[in-house]
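Subject: mismatched residue count in predicted assembly?

I count 226 residues in my input, but I want to confirm that the predicted structure covers every chain. Input:
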Amino acid sequence: DAGVIQSPRHEVTEMGQEVTLRCKPISGHNSLFWYRQTMMRGLELLIYFNNNVPIDDSGMPEDRFSAKMPNASFSTLKIQPSEPRDSAVYFCASSLSGEKLFFGSGTQLSVL
Amino acid sequence: AQSVTQLGSHVSVSEGALVLLRCNYSSSVPPYLFWYVQYPNQGLQLLLKYTSAATLVKGINGFEAEFKKSETSFHLTKPSAHMSDAAEYFCAVSENTGRRALTFGSGTRLQVQP
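Triage response: the counts match. Full output below for your records.
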């Protein structure tokens, strides 16, 4: 298996623009997680899905952030409009039954 | 609510020396505990996990951790550091009640000096 695949690896955008991050989990995994990593706040859970259903989105910073999982093999995290303080590395992870998370390589987002 | 505290954001050891990375947890229910490692420009990889079986857990690359309930600790150790161990290490906790998401500590960056 190719592991968790995230795209793009790097995204540079201007403040106010819409940003969409993509994730393909490992086939057969039933849980998917979006994390954000910054120097100041470390790793923060944004949202997680179980069987494509959002279970906990309490970590989503505000209404500008939204996440979807239309099927078991694809998820998106959207930021609209983006702001400089959204600059971070965004990780997607998947797991089977939640005990061991497999992380993607992350998307480095820079909002200018 | 669950949380983990990692003491020391940076740890430096000499090659061949003992590695000790500290983690204390807080959880209202029996926890699952994990150590993950992150190499530069990569995602996190699982080193080891504790899920209420043996309190001494052995992981990959010679690392191990001991769950001590009385101290609410889950420190990570390795008898002899190798240059390739230089990375950032994260302790994480989840509750074994069905909520699957992990709460991560702030991380400890390990430097290994030649």
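Chain B has a mean pLDDT of 90. Marking this ticket as 'not a bug'.
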